[in-house]
Structures are given as structure tokens and as C-alpha cells.
Design a protein that fits this description.
Distance between the termini: 46 Å
Oligomer: single chain
Largest sheet: 2 strands, antiparallel
Helix content: 55-70%
Shape: elongated
Strand content: under 5%
Strand order of the largest sheet: 1-2
Structural class: mainly alpha
Radius of gyration: 27 Å
Length: 378
């Protein structure tokens, strides 16, 4: 049985939520956590804004939309696909024989170390301090100038504004930082796995020696990438509509932030490069020697005809076998340096691009944006 590594459930805060009844079963649903987060981060905000007659301005505000009304639910909805894809990838590693029986203890120890890292109380404490400390350290100076009228009463910060700064943003940052920590745990696991001598198969059709199962985790991160980038898309929108910034002045952060997020998600696959390079070189040697022996016999029989001039070429399986051998060598020679395909990365790039649409639409009409995308897809 494959050891279990669940990045999204089982940490100290998750266990506390189970004890308090906010989560039930395993794996727990996302409905209750989303309701809890919105109750803490959004409901008091809406009440305070409603009292001041600013509820309409609140729900239309890009900062509230991007971080709270969209960001928080999306980051929770990202949990099931990530957990499921990792569980399937680990099972594949064991059932396909990538991990030799004698190396199973090392594999299980790698999973155990990643699990202990996920369950770190120190990490949870640091995340909490970073999330709420940023709010207490004067975040309103950086954020509230781009908020709507609901955030101020005259020259003073309103009750809704204070709740947004001290509680709502801290809750969002805590959810976001927990995800960044989970990805760091994934880094730790993949680094440990890359140090286990895996039984890679150079001729495997996935062109990754059989590690293609790990690459299937990447598409499951699309919802997470969207949840992380859409809040920046709305932040940039607020800077354009409220702060008067120009889209051209935001090009560097709009390009740089999604790239950094994608690198954070995908870079640990590079840990397998040494093993994949060694497997490809070994495969080239092994299949090259096999091809040399086979083609020498093939030439002797069908070209030089030293093994029977009367042999019938038509209908023989020798030609098909030669073709199959050539295809196998082509697979070996075409092994990828990392266990990722363009198809696996494409959903993440698309999710990051869609997350930035609110900023683009602040200056470019939506119809024109859609036409540009359609022309690019042709």
C-alpha cells in the first residue's frame, strides 16, 4: 500500500477545525471552511458598510472582490484536486515499481519527513504572525488609498475599513501563506524522492522514465494559481481605477508575479533532472547496443543475404521489429529533462492569464480582449 501524503489536510489548524466541528469526515468538504472564512472576513465587513450606507460600494470594490469574495473560496476549492492528484501520483510510484522493494523504507521516510514538515507548529505560528502582524504594522497605508468610499468616513478610516485591514486581509493572507507552505512541503517531498534511486525506464512512453505520474499533479494546481493571481488582477485594477495608474506602468509586476507563482509551483520537478539524464544516457547505450546487434543480423539476412537468399521478405516480421526498435530508441532519445509536458503546464498559464483579466479590462474593453485572445488561438 502506498504511503499517504496529503498536503491539504492534517496540519494542526486542520485538526483544530475538525475538533470544533467546522470540518467533518475525511477528506472534508470545502463548504463549511468557505462559510467560516466568509463569516469572519466578509460578514462583519458587510454589516459595518451597510450601517454606513456603503454596502453597494463595498461589494463592487476590486480589493474586496479579488481577495475575499473570489480569492478565499477559490483557495479552498483548490484543495480537493491537489490532494487527489498527489495521492494518485504516489500510488503510481509504488504500483509501477519505480520504487524498488528494498528502497521502500527510504520512500516511506521521505513521506514521513514531508508530513512532519506539514504538521509543524512553528510554521503555523510563523504564518499567523506574518499574516496578522502585517495588518497590525500599518497595512492601511499601502492598501486603503486604493479602496472605495466604504473604507473612510471623512478623513478617518471607517469601521469597515478597520475590519478590512486588521481582520479580513489577515485571514486572506493566512490562507495564502498556508498554501505557499504546502507547496514548500511538496518541494521537500520531491527533493527527498529525487534522492531515492528510482527504477526509471528509458523507453517508457511518457518520455519521463515512468515519472509522468508526478507531472499530472501540475494541472490540478490550476485552481490554486487562479486563486493566487486573481487577487493581484483586482489589486492592479484598483490601482488603475482608483489610484490613476496606467496599465503600461504595471507591466513588470503583472508579468513578474504570475511567473514567480508558476516557478514556485513547477520548479521542484527539476530535482529529477540528474536521474533522468542518467537514465537517458544509459538507455541510449543499452538500446544502441541492442539496435546494433539487431540491424547487423537484419543486414546479414536481408541485405547481404548470407542467411538465406531464398527467404521471403514480404510478410516477414523482421521489418516491423526493426521499425519498433527504431521507435523505442526515439522514445529513449526524446526523454524530457523534467517530468512535465506542455499540456500539463498549459492550464496553469491559462489560469494565471485569466486571473489578470480584471486589470486588463480596466483599460481595454472586454470585447476587444476576447477578440485578441481568439485571434491568438487561431
Amino acid at each position: 500500500m502506498a504511503p499517504d501524503l496529503d498536503l491539504t489536510h492534517g496540519d494542526p489548524l486542520d485538526r483544530l477545525e475538525h475538533r470544533l466541528g467546522f470540518k467533518r469526515g475525511y477528506p472534508p468538504g470545502v463548504g463549511r471552511p468557505i462559510a467560516l472564512l466568509l463569516t469572519v472576513a466578509v460578514l462583519p465587513l458587510a454589516v459595518f458598510a451597510g450601517i454606513e450606507g456603503q454596502l453597494g460600494a463595498l461589494v463592487r470594490d476590486p480589493l474586496v472582490l479579488g481577495r475575499l469574495l473570489l480569492g478565499l473560496p477559490l483557495l479552498q476549492l483548490a484543495r480537493p484536486p491537489v490532494a487527489g492528484s498527489i495521492a494518485r501520483a504516489l500510488k503510481q510510484c509504488v504500483t509501477t515499481g519505480l520504487v524498488a522493494p528494498e528502497d521502500s523504507p527510504r520512500f516511506e521516510a521521505t513521506v514521513a519527513r514531508a508530513t512532519r514538515m506539514r504538521d509543524s507548529l512553528l510554521a503555523l505560528a510563523l504564518i499567523t504572525v506574518l499574516a496578522f502582524g502585517a495588518s497590525l504594522a500599518g497595512r492601511q497605508v499601502a492598501v486603503l488609498p486604493f479602496a472605495g468610499s466604504w473604507a473612510r468616513t471623512g478623513e478617518r478610516i471607517s469601521l469597515a475599513g478597520w475590519w478590512f485591514v486588521l481582520v479580513s486581509l489577515a485571514v486572506f493572507d493566512m490562507v495564502r501563506l498556508r498554501w505557499l507552505w504546502r507547496i514548500l512541503v511538496w518541494w521537500r517531498f520531491l527533493f527527498g524522492l529525487s534522492r531515492v534511486p528510482l527504477r526509471l525506464m528509458p523507453a517508457h512512453p511518457d518520455r519521463a522514465g515512468g515519472l509522468g505520474a508526478l507531472g499530472t499533479v501540475a494541472p490540478s494546481l490550476a485552481m490554486l494559481v487562479f486563486g493566487l493571481t486573481v487577487n493581484y488582477g483586482f489589486d492592479f485594477r484598483a490601482r488603475i481605477l482608483v489610484g490613476g495608474a496606467k496599465l503600461s506602468s504595471l507591466v513588470i509586476p503583472m508579468a513578474g508575479i504570475p511567473i514567480l507563482i508558476l516557478v514556485w509551483m513547477l520548479a521542484p520537478m527539476a530535482f529529477f533532472m540528474p536521474q533522468l539524464f542518467r537514465a537517458r544516457n544509459r538507455g541510449r547505450m543499452d538500446y544502441g547496443q541492442l539496435a546494433a546487434r539487431y540491424t547487423r543480423r537484419f543486414d546479414a539476412r536481408w541485405i547481404d543475404q548470407r542467411e538465406g537468399p531464398d527467404a521471403e521478405l514480404l510478410g516477414t516480421s523482421d521489418v516491423q521489429s526493426l521499425s519498433d526498435l527504431a521507435n523505442s530508441y526515439a522514445v529513449v532519445d526524446g526523454m524530457r529533462p523534467i517530468p512535465l509536458t506542455i499540456g500539463a503546464v498549459r492550464p496553469l498559464v491559462l489560469a494565471a492569464a485569466v486571473g489578470l483579466l480584471p486589470a486588463l479590462e480596466a483599460e481595454i474593453p472586454l470585447k476587444e480582449l476576447l477578440l485578441t485572445v481568439l485571434r491568438a488561438m487561431r
